[in-house]
Specification:
The protein is α/β, with parallel strands linked by helices. Helices cover 44% and strands 16% of the residues. It contains 12 helices and 9 strands. The relative contact order is 0.09.
Length: 346
């Protein structure tokens, strides 16, 4: 029997309860820490297992791809994964193992996750679209420089030829919302993907999509609509296609095969684009390794353009060709009725 005074008794009791609660919280924290430690250990072990299998399959970046597969299909953030806050479920593990078997056959990671990063954004991609490359971001950067220098405060018309997933057109529009963007592609299936991405970014009212192989949909109607034309055309030499990695060979041949020396589509663009670019407008194209020398000689003889230059990528390769259109639209029959054949009415 306690001989304490009532007030003192309750103080002692409260102190004992406080110590008990603290002890209980520590016990729970200890159990939670133990669970997190076990979860993290299991996560890392699974990551290493996937990495090892990818490495044995000849994947160039097995660690990065292993992480990407786990985070994507596990719907995890890197913080969730590497702090052990969330565990990879059995069903997710099975799914990743199944996807991994497909990846080991050479199917690109982007076609398994159906998404690819570009210019700080994430785009939907499928086997019907080219997978965006980091070097293509240089095309967007150069286009924004031209916009800032020559079209500041204006609403320039821009065309993306061969839009694929729409990553170039969308990135440019997001960077410079004042522009009016049109995008062509020869593949209807690629246009479906581009349309999904345009909707995903809420740009239905900003970007017009049209089915056309280069400018073929215009027929004989040659009118100067655009201030700037950008393109990432196919530029891989046909003879080099068999030498590409199995991952790249999985991408659409239409988006890769540039014909002899890789410049056939580029030459058609150089021939056709001046009919549709306004005077003093611009053409910007991504090109392949070693093609700058070939194109430089052709540009010197091309009276349609002036002020052409090449921009090197991080590897020192001339990657982007920038050229200014020199001809008056009147030289090709005048602008005529724009509404008649504008791509928004195709």
């Amino acid at each position: 029997m306690c001989h304490c005074e009532p007030a003192a008794f309750w103080r002692v009791r409260q102190s004992m309860l406080t110590r008990s609660h603290r002890l209980l919280r520590r016990l729970r924290a200890s159990r939670n820490d133990t669970h997190i430690t076990v979860t993290l250990k299991n996560n890392i072990a699974f990551l290493k297992k996937i990495e090892s299998r990818l490495k044995s399959a000849g994947v160039l970046s097995p660690r990065a791809e292993a992480e990407a597969l786990i985070l994507h299909f596990g719907r995890l953030t890197r913080l969730d994964f590497f702090t052990g806050e969330k565990e990879i479920s059995v069903s997710v593990r099975r799914m990743i193992q199944k996807v991994l078997r497909v990846r080991q056959t050479g199917k690109p990671l982007a076609y398994l996750t159906n998404e690819a990063p570009f210019y700080g954004y994430t785009f939907q991609v499928t086997k019907d679209t080219l997978i965006p490359r980091p070097e293509t971001e240089l095309l967007v950067e150069e286009a924004t420089r031209v916009l800032d220098k020559f079209y500041s405060g204006q609403n320039p018309e821009i065309l993306d030829v061969g839009t694929g997933s729409g990553c170039i057109a969308i990135s440019l529009t997001l960077q410079r919302p004042a522009c009016r963007m049109t995008a062509f592609d020869a593949s209807l299936k690629a246009l479906e993907v581009a349309r999904k991405n345009v909707k995903l970014f809420g740009l239905n009212d900003k970007i017009q999509l049209a089915h056309s192989r280069l400018f073929n949909s215009f027929g004989k109607n040659k009118r100067a609509f655009w201030d700037i034309v950008v393109s990432n055309p196919p530029y891989v030499p046909s003879e080099d296609l068999p030498k590409l990695s199995r991952e790249v060979r999985s991408e659409p041949r239409l988006a890769l095969d540039g014909g002899a020396k890789g410049v056939e589509t580029i030459e058609r663009l150089l021939k056709q684009a001046p009919f549709y670019i306004k005077k003093d407008g611009w053409l910007l194209m991504e090109i392949g390794d070693g093609q700058a020398a070939i194109l430089s000689e052709k540009m010197k003889r091309n009276r349609s353009f002036k002020n052409f230059r090449f921009v090197k990528d991080l590897n020192g390769i001339d990657r982007i060709m920038v050229a200014q259109c020199h001809c008056e639209p009147a030289a090709f029959g005048g602008r005529g009725n724009l509404r008649f054949c504008h791509p928004r009415n195709l």
